[in-house]
Amino acid sequence: MRNLYHKFRLFIKSFTFPKTLLVGDTSNKILIHNWPTSMDIFNGSTIVKDEKMFYEPNEYGQFIKIAKNKKVFFDIRAHIGWYCLVANGLGVENSYAFEIVDSFADIAEKNFKLNNIKGGVFRVALGVPGIKIDFKQSIYSGSKTAISLDDFCENNNVYPDIIKMDIEGYELDALKSMDNILSKRPALDISIHSAYLEQRGQSEKEVLELLLKYGYEIIWAGGGTYFMK
User: Could you tell me whether strands 225-228 and 187-191 are parallel, antiparallel, or unpaired per DSSP bridges?
Assistant: First the structure.
């Protein structure tokens, strides 16, 4: 009941903002009057200024740098699609959002439609094929059977030149199923969750060593997030 009350309070508070806000410094708009976006705005990781929403402002600045001149963006655990809206606003032609929480994916689809974004929202988990992946955040949860990102790309004949990944402990599993993609060296924005990895008998060091084997270099790091190219 406490979480439900907290969710409802933030939802009501979101109506102090207009129905939509601009996404960073782009001309794209994001829907505000829904619970997932409300929690992002009021959880301390978001700045709203001049009717513009800046989610994860430090990472946002770095993301802009690596997204320039890119054509295909994959957002692995896309939440409500904020980074897809940023990418599209920067000129990225196609954005693919992967999300296993249906309520988040619902909002992402609405944001895609609002801004006429090409690509799509896919309700699948990425990792070791056939393994069930569960996720829970506050009152939200999702569960999907994982597929290989290499298989997804081959089946859909699409390959990213920039990837964002934030999958809370499943990073190493997902990367191990991306040999073909990593060999092409797309730019990476990856959040590495050491505590969750350790619970699964893995480590941040293993993730970084795997990426270094493909020739990646770290261009920025902070708070467990790495930008690499």
Answer: antiparallel
Q: Are 29 and 114 in contact (CB under 8 A)?
A: yes
Residue 134 neighbours by CB under 8 Å, 6+ apart? 141, 142, 143
Q: What is the pTM of this model?
A: 0.94
Helix 102-115 and helix 82-89, axial crossing angle in degrees, nearest 10: 20
A 10 A CB-CB count for 212 gives: 12
> Residue 198 carries which side chain, given as an amino acid letter?
E
Q: Determine what percent of the chain falls in helix, strand and coil, rounding each to the nearest 5.
A: 40, 30, 35
CA dist 160 and 163 (Å) reads: 7
Which backbone phi and psi does 152 adopt, to 5 degrees?
Answer: -60, -45
* Distance between CA atoms of residues 141 and 225, nearest Å: 23
Residue 160 vs residues 3, 19, 55, 176: alpha-carbon distances, Å: 37, 32, 23, 16
Give the relative orientation of helices 57-67 and 82-89 as an angle to the nearest 10 degrees: 40
Q: Are 216 and 229 in contact (CB under 8 A)?
A: yes
As given in the structure block, the two tokens for residue 136 are: 């829970």
Task: Please name the residues in contact with 76: beta carbons below 8 A apart, sequence gap of 6 or more.
Answer: 98, 126, 149, 163, 164, 165, 166, 167, 174
CA distances from residue 52 to 26, 27, 225 in whole angstroms, order as listed: 9, 10, 23
Question: What is the tens place of the pLDDT at every residue in 70-120?
Answer: 999 999 999 999 999 999 999 999 999 999 999 999 999 999 999 999 999
